[in-house]
Amino acid sequence: MPRILHMSDIHFGAENTLATAAAAGYARSQRFDLLVISGDITQDGKPLEFEAAARWYNVLPGPKMITPGNHDMPQVSPERLYHPFGRYERRFGPPGSAWFDGAGMAVRAFNTARGIQFRPNWSKGALSRGQAAAVANDLSRTPAGIFKIAVCHHPLVEVPDGPMTARVIGGPRGACLMAEAGVDMILSGHVHTPFAFPVPFADRHTYSVGAATLSLRERGTPAGFNVIDIDASTIRVAALAWTGSHFEPSRTWALPRRTPQGA
Ligand SMILES: [Fe+2]
């Protein structure tokens, strides 16, 4: 049964050095089918931050995939206007293009971060109808029994009692499309606290699951990451929290999977 290691919001430049190194050690010491990093690998999109991030990422065990967050572009530079993800792309490939098929899973990344937006706060997310439909259509075509996962940076639906909002333009519409397409889980980060809840669409068995941060930018919960175990009936999410010397379980969720059609 698939096991995923899910990390997010490392924010190199403001990373928790000890926790980040220990998380990499954890990844190397355990068996996983996939390592997912859901954005904000850097703090301000600076070249030195991308260099440090790539050094850390490149020695993590695979298979692994990454998608960008709102911090992964130059924060104050004309480059943000005309080529916001150029620095990201040079290190990690085209933004939002990562995918994985294997170990009983189909996983598709997409990009909810934007260089500029027609609103004052450019840190929030956006998702076009075309982006959401492409992910939903792609995953809906995967064979029955394959666990379907979408990955982005911003939670598409606001996290209940979360420490901050994502206000993703087109987010709820996209989550609805994905739920109707039978997507099992949407992985994200951004709020820097772990969460797991069903999105309020379709059969309510599509789950929004998020990892904490590995940076010093904590928002009420310690640095950490998630381990996700998937069996035929249940998605088990364990949030591991950094104590200052090691990671230990802090919260767990057991999420019932949708019953396969015809079962
Ligand atoms: Fe972040």
Would you give an account of this structure?
This protein is of the alpha/beta class and 263 residues long. It has a single domain, classed as Metallo-dependent phosphatases (Purple Acid Phosphatase, chain A, domain 2, 4-Layer Sandwich), CATH 3.60.21. It contains six helices and twelve strands. The protein has helices at residues 17-29, 47-58, 79-82, 86-92, 129-140, 171-180; strands at 3-7, 34-37, 64-66, 99-102, 105-109, 147-151, 185-188, 195-198, 207-210, 224-230, 234-242, 247-256. Strand 10 and strand 11 (234-242) form a beta hairpin. Helix 2 (47-58) runs parallel beside helix 4 (86-92) and helix 5 (129-140) packs parallel to helix 6. Bound molecules: fe (ii) ion.
Multimeric state: single chain
Query: Can you tell me the residue ranges where pLDDT is under 50 for at least 5 consecutive residues?
Result: none
Radius of gyration: 17 Å
Mean pLDDT: 96
Count the strands? 12
Tally the helices: 6
What structural category do the secondary elements indicate? alpha/beta
CATH superfamily label: Metallo-dependent phosphatases
Sketch the topology as an H/E string, one letter per element.
EHEHEHHEEHEHEEEEEE
List keywords for this structure.
single chain; 263 residues; alpha/beta; Purple Acid Phosphatase, chain A, domain 2; 6-stranded mixed sheet; 6 helices; binds fe (ii) ion
What's the layout of helices and strands?
Blueprint: E1 3-7, H1 17-29, E2 34-37, H2 47-58, E3 64-66, H3 79-82, H4 86-92, E4 99-102, E5 105-109, H5 129-140, E6 147-151, H6 171-180, E7 185-188, E8 195-198, E9 207-210, E10 224-230, E11 234-242, E12 247-256
Parallel strand pairs: 1-2, 2-3, 5-6, 6-7, 7-9
Antiparallel strand pairs: 1-10, 4-5, 8-9, 10-11, 11-12
